[in-house]
Write a structure and sequence with these properties.
The protein has about 475 residues and is an alpha/beta fold. Helix content is about 50%, strand content about 10%. It is globular and about 60 Å long.
Length: about 475
């Protein structure tokens, strides 16, 4: 059984003979669950169970007739082997490869394209337009948040695509949370996949998704300079630990009486994985780590929401794209240079549309996103947000704000957090403590722990 360089979905395997459901309860991998609560995804091959693993990325695996893993060998290792090529050559190669991959992936099917205000889906839009594909595009934003759909609508118009816009409102999660738990098997928390709000709209849109995940990692620098091994470790830890995650994981570690110290355990696990990557360039090494462990265990998990409705394709996940990235000089990947140059070359009108992360500037003017050039926009934006707050319409920036705030959300959230199922795994004292901190101290800091406790509650309900 062979896995992709960046697997689209996990492949599970046993590492010992099957046990009864009651035996499995006693073999929960609590160390791995602690990591899950700290970073939001399971690390390496970890699962909820001690007797089960996920097959590693880019590996060839042998399983016996009972589905027990016998042998696993890598067939690809991330590397940094920059070729002596010009930027123009790199751009030409990227263009040819990107078009080839998309042509092979979608063929003559009608494409469903989620569009954002960023660069990855914009790059796909330009390619799909150049290839003459029939495209149904869509975008969504938060009600009372930044109108991201306005940017996507402009891109779709320039490309001549069908377009639908959706505005995600409060509390959509509660109507679909148990369906989502079944789809992603509780291997990701539930506040990120906004696509669940419109999952029933996908049926009528087209034949195949073209998704832009992971382009922002492959086509950008990870760090600004060469780092020591210890600095690389600290960068990874800083990138993956979510606010409040370390505190919750430490509390669970102590409650479950696990050996040693959680923080030391996590650092040791990450260091071991990082040390196995034989790349000297720090930026390329960190990109490899994220592609090996973050992409398949976090980014890929909620791709299942799309594939629940239609086949999915991911041009940036393609093995050939990964191999190409390993040979491109870092200076060409840094600061999204290749994607920006590609869009400017292939479709200048699309390049003139606002780049959301650099708003109000576009791909020709984003270098001006600094003082004093951006001061007028920043002042106006602040005034708009403050005015909304005065009118009782707070500016929504994060998905959990739609799910956890307000009386109805509170009622639904508490129904799961204080369920009998969660009490079997997490003490009510811990749940009460983190929920109280979320409500009374710092919602931003404690939204992640609350979200992870909600995820564990749904997992325990699945098991009953």
């Amino acid at each position: 059984m062979k896995t992709q360089i960046i697997p689209i979905k996990p492949t599970f395997a046993k590492v010992q003979k099957n046990h009864s459901q009651s035996d499995l309860r006693r073999k929960l991998n609590k160390e791995s669950i602690c990591i899950f609560t700290a970073i939001g995804f399971f690390l390496d091959q970890d699962t909820y169970w001690k007797d089960e693993v996920v097959l590693p990325a880019a590996s060839e695996n042998k399983l016996d007739k009972n589905g027990i893993l016998q042998e696993s060998k890598p067939y690809f290792k991330w590397h940094y082997s920059p070729r002596n090529i010009t930027f123009e050559q790199a751009l030409e190669e990227f263009t040819e490869l990107f078009h080839t991959i998309i042509e092979e992936q979608v063929g003559n099917k009608k494409v469903i394209l989620p569009l954002s205000g960023g660069l990855d889906s914009r790059t796909q839009a330009v390619a799909l337009k150049a290839l003459g594909k029939e495209v149904h595009s869509y975008s969504y934003d938060f009600k009372e948040g930044y109108p991201e759909t306005n940017i996507a609508k402009q891109i779709a118009k320039v490309c001549g695509f069908e377009f639908q816009e959706f505005h995600i409102g409060k509390g959509y999660l509660w109507n679909s949370i148990e369906e989502l738990a079944t789809i992603n098997n509780c291997y990701s928390d539930f506040t990120h996949p906004r696509q669940m709000a419109i999952i029933n709209e996908f049926d009528a849109m087209g034949d195949v998704f073209s998704l832009g995940h992971w382009g922002d990692v492959l086509f950008d620098k990870m760090v600004d300079r060469q780092l020591s091994s210890e600095e690389e470790l600290q960068v990874i830890i800083k990138k993956i630990i979510v606010k409040g995650g370390m505190e919750l994981a430490t509390a669970l570690w102590k409650q479950w009486g696990l050996e040693g110290n959680f923080e030391n355990y996590l650092h040791h696990r990450i260091k071991n994985l990082l040390d196995k990557i034989e790349i000297k360039n720090s930026s390329a090494k960190i990109r490899a780590f994220k592609s090996m462990y973050w992409a398949p265990r976090w980014t890929s998990v909620n791709l299942a929401v799309f594939s629940e409705k239609k086949p999915i394709t991911l041009p940036y996940y393609d093995d050939r794209m990964c191999e190409f990235i390993c040979t491109v000089p870092e200076k060409y990947l840094a600061d999204r240079k290749l994607q920006i140059a590609y869009i400017k070359q292939q479709n200048p009108e699309v390049a003139k549309i606002t780049w959301q992360s650099e708003k109000p500037f576009n791909l020709y003017t984003f270098q001006k996103n600094k003082s004093p050039y951006n001061l007028p926009y920043r002042v106006l934006n602040k005034l708009q947000r403050e005015t909304k707050a005065i009118l009782g319409k707070p500016y929504i920036q994060r998905n959990w704000e739609l799910q956890f705030l307000g009386d109805e959300n509170k009622k639904q959230l508490e129904r799961y957090l204080f369920s009998d199922e969660l009490k079997e795994l997490v003490s009510e004292e811990i749940v009460q403590d983190f929920y109280r901190k979320f409500e009374t101290q710092d919602q931003v800091q404690y939204s992640h722990p609350v979200s992870m406790l909600l995820t564990l509650a749904l997992k325990m309900k699945q098991m009953n």
